[in-house]
Each structure stands twice: as structure tokens, then as C-alpha cells.
Amino acid sequence: MSNQEEWNLFLESLFTNAFESYGKTKESEYLKEKQEPLDVRLEQHENAGKQFLEEYLFQMGLDAERKTEFVYRQGIKDGIWLLKNLGVLA
Questions:
Q1: Among residues of the chain, what percentage have pLDDT more than 90?
Q2: Which of 36, 51, 56, 90 has the fewest CB atoms within 10 Å of its CB?
């Protein structure tokens, strides 16, 4: 395994842990509660538009997840850069 692959695996592990920790917060619970009525309304629409809407929302969720992971990874890189420039890390 190359250094880049190991680094990516390490960052992925950190991101997964952070994501799981977020899932246990009050904010996450609040957002889940807010989502439930929307899920019920979606289930009530049994027409052709429902499939399109589900696919659209799924793709939007994937896009948001990719953006979040990118920003998380960039935050780690920026933090390391800052610590190096401050002389905390060699």
C-alpha cells in the first residue's frame, strides 16, 4: 500500500468516526425528527414523480456527503499545515 493510499485510509477512518459522533448529537436527532414528516409526505405520493423525486434526493444527498468529506479532509490538511508553520510539528 502506498503512502497516499495509507493517508486516504487514515482520513477516511477519521471522517467515519466524526460522522458517527455527529449522529449521536442533539442536532442530528433534531434533523432526523424534522426529516420524518417529509418522508411521510413522500410516501403518500404514489405517482411517477415519486421515483424521480427519490432519485433526485438520493443524488443530492450523495453530493452533500462528498462535499462534506472534502471539506473535512481539507480541514485536516489545513490544521497540519498550520501546526507545521507554528513549529508545533516538525
A1: 3
A2: 90
What are the φ/ψ torsions at residue 85 (nearest 5 degrees)? -70, -25
Q: Give me the chain's average pLDDT, please.
A: 85
CB 76 within 8 A of CB 11: yes
Dmax over CA atoms of the chain, in Å, equals 61
With H, G, I as helix, E, B as strand and everything else as coil, classify residue 79: helix
pLDDT greater than 80 at residue 46: no
Which residue, chain included where needed, has cell 493517508?
Answer: 7
